Amino acid sequence: MARHGGGRSWYGKVVGAALGVTVLATGASVWTAQAGSAGDSAPKATAPAEPGSAVKPVSAAIAHASEEGKRGVNITIDDGPDPVWTPRVLDLLREYGVKATFCMVGTQAQAHPDLVKKVVAAGHRLCDHSVSHNTAMDKDTEAYQSQQILDAERMITKASGGVRPMYYRAPGGAFTPHSRELAASRGMRPLGWNVDTKDFERPGTDAIVATVERELPNGPTLLFHDAGGDRTQTVEALHRLLPRLKEQGYSFGFPVR
């Protein structure tokens, strides 16, 4: 999610001190996932023979480009999963044959593992969006940043049934050199965006669609949300945009890794 004011977001207010999560050690047991392109089957997970052996480091540079090339579009969905809005987004993506990247908050994934599994089963990719969605986490200690990234990785992987996140998106874009390097060492490419649809602010469906059409020439990665409030406008905007972009010759894919 893009920054919508400073400090801890609505997630932080909800979870607060009750969260009680612990930092994962780098050598903890991990899982490996093979997620294919838009036309491939759902990602599969296997447990490695040795703890940590399956984690392949990736670039720590923030990704914006699409695996589909110059006419590619990356649909990215932040802040869920949500029991009301994630199923509606999944229905639309299935209707138009589009694959997306879901940037999940750890506590949301932990609360709704059935939805995480549905996302994976539909062939979409997972992204670590921290534990508590603190948009000021870049101002906090490296230990705190590590806890937010690694605990969310654990929560999402467990909720998915063993499929690890392939990306890490800092809440509000609050990346630091430490957070990028840590995520990359865990096989999660730092993920940015090119077009902030501002759907979180509910500016109206027309405004969301207009923002995408105006700013898509800036780059292929589009930022939407499936949690954090009423996402009716997001669903309506996707309903308009997905077929329209296809008609214009765009291909939907995943961010580069």
SSE layout and pairing:
Elements: H1 10-15, E1 32-34, E2 44-46, E3 72-78, H2 85-95, E4 101-104, H3 106-111, H4 113-121, E5 125-128, H5 142-160, E6 167-168, H6 177-185, E7 189-190, E8 195-196, H7 205-215, E9 221-225, H8 232-247, E10 251-253
Parallel strand pairs: 3-4, 3-9, 3-10, 4-5, 5-6, 6-7, 8-9
Antiparallel strand pairs: 1-2
Dominant shape: globular
Q: How many beta-strand runs?
A: 10
Provide the structure class. alpha/beta
First-last Cα distance: 20 Å
Element-level helix/strand string: HEEEHEHHEHEHEEHEHE
What would you report as the Rg, rounded to the nearest angstrom? Answer: 17 Å
What oligomerization state is this entry in? Answer: single chain
Task: Figure out the total of helices.
Answer: 8
Q: Give helix % range.
A: 25-40%
Residue stretches low in confidence (pLDDT < 50, at least 5 long) are: 4-53
Tell me the major beta sheet: 8 strands, parallel
Mean pLDDT: 85
Strand content: 5-15%
